[in-house]
Amino acid sequence: MKKQSLRLLTSLSMILLFSGLTFAAGEEITQIKPGFKLVPAIIMIALLCVYIGVGFLSKVSSTSGYWVAGQGIGKLGNGAAIASDWMSAASFMGVAGLLYLKGWFGLGYIVGWTGGYVLLLCLIAAQIRRFGKYTIPEFLGDRYNSHGVRMIAASVTVIIAITYSTAQFKGIGLICGWIFGMDYTMSVFFAAAVVCLYMLISGMAGVTRNQQIQYVVLISAFLLPLWFLIKKAGGVGVLPQLEYGKILGDLMDGKTALGQLDANATEALRRDFLPWGHGDFYHFVALVFTLMVGTAGLPHIMIRFYTVKNEDTARKSVLWGLFFIGLLYWSSPVYAILGKFWNPAGGANVADVIILSAPETAELGTPFIGYLAAGALAAGLSTVAGLLVAGASAIAHDWYTTVLRPDCSDRQALQVGRMVTAILCIIVIFFALHPIALIAQIVAMAFALAGNTIFPVVVLGIWYSKSNKYGALAGMCFGLGMTLLAMFGWSAEIAAFGGEGLLPATSSALIVCPLAFLINIVVSNIMHDKLDEDSQIKGDNLLRKIHNLPETNDPGF
């Protein structure tokens, strides 16, 4: 009955969406302007009703359903959920904005974020699924037989969730403000209310189903306008991803929709889109490396491997997720180039809304732009929901039910989880009202945090049998301290931690991550004799489990 209701609800939403697209077709606008917009609002409200309805129909009453969707998600569905979880406001809005603003250097975000999935596929996905519980801090706590490791990992997970969600709420605030005519503050509160409502009702089961719907919305919303945009810019309109090269060539000669640029403006634009026009080799490599290890270390992405049936499904869902993600990243440069074509001098003021300003300036009409905005909101909401699940589970499951109250009931654990979800949402709102950087830059800081803390300890926990709790604690504390130092240094505008410094907050993993690995290994070997036999046996048996080997009582595997 629930499945039939879900299908009906989804079908009705699609009818509402496309009737909204037909309604008022032809209305044109020529600039990003404030005020309530009827057609985008109809589209948005229809989708929000779907999300909340799916959450209600997916209501759960067990911790397994709330944290990992009952471990019943298939490879295609989980791949779509991974992509939706991943393709946040940073991917949907921020990447196009960075490519618009920084040109060639912005490709580092695409290369790093997609490359991280190769690390996940090769090093982590199947092994994490064989462990088969709820959270990454739980895996680390069991692997190292240490509540200290579990608590620090849970704390890092919460900090990542807050940092990452701050960027999403900035994107959501910009979108809601454009559609509903709200100011930025009201937009953030509005989006938070929607996320909390369906999160508190459904947990991971509803989030996963919503993310599958949201992927269809966001990818169709992202791709559909491109065909019309490329034709308006003089392209054929068959495959925009292969056609925008001619427009880029014209831009390099100073030819835009506004006419011929002068020599200085043309030279500045050429510098943007040639290698090292912004940044240098070191900072490009540092950015790519940070985003790769950060991707592989994100707890809210890793937790998706617990939601599937087995390790084979976990591996295949990564491949499907990478395919779905690739569709969007293949198209982001098109928006950046078309944005430059219609608005070559917009600068940072329009970078984060370039996917709206380009279609709006090209006069595509409100319905198309409204659907595009709906996709951007879907991207932000889906990621925030996954982050809040990961953050809430770290506190409710790994702190409360595992360490503080191991004898609590399922009902008590769910109540704590829902309460923590609401509290985290409030904290994120506070930080989202005072963002410290562009959307994609804030996200990159969250990735640096994951790459410097979670990634090294998980990889060594899976592949290095001598790694122990002493090394894990030392490596994680070092990575956490250095990353927070870089983030505070960025916000304080200290040159060493800025975009051109030695340790940029967005790219700190190139230096910090290898050191975290090294510290973990060195300390683990130094403290090997301090490890009790019980911890060795438990760690060895967990390693045997995730590598499909028989258990043993001999500490020395």
Summarize the helices and strands and which ones pair or pack.
Blueprint: H1 2-22, H2 38-57, H3 63-68, H4 75-86, H5 89-102, H6 107-131, H7 136-143, H8 147-180, H9 184-202, H10 204-232, H11 240-252, E1 255-256, E2 259-260, H12 263-273, H13 281-297, H14 299-302, H15 311-329, H16 332-342, H17 348-351, H18 354-361, H19 366-404, H20 410-432, H21 439-463, H22 469-491, H23 509-526, H24 533-546
Antiparallel strand pairs: 1-2
Helix pairs in contact: 1-2, 1-19, 2-9, 2-10, 2-19, 4-10, 4-15, 5-8, 5-16, 5-19, 5-21, 6-13, 6-15, 6-21, 7-8, 8-9, 8-19, 8-20, 8-21, 8-22, 9-10, 9-19, 9-20, 10-19, 11-16, 13-21, 13-23, 16-18, 18-19, 19-20, 21-22, 21-23, 22-23
Dominant shape: globular
Please identify the structural class as seen in this structure.
Answer: mainly alpha
Strand content: under 5%
| DSSP E strands, number | 2
State the helical fraction: over 70%
Number of separate structural domains: 1
CATH-derived topology: Sodium/glucose cotransporter
What's the SSE pattern?
A: HHHHHHHHHHHEEHHHHHHHHHHHHH
Assembly state: single chain
CATH first level: which class?
Mainly Alpha
Major sheet characteristics: 2 strands, antiparallel
CATH superfamily: Sodium/glucose cotransporter
* CATH architecture verdict: Up-down Bundle
Protein name: Cation/acetate symporter
Subcellular location: Membrane
Main location: membrane
Family: Belongs to the sodium:solute symporter (SSF) (TC 2.A.21) family.
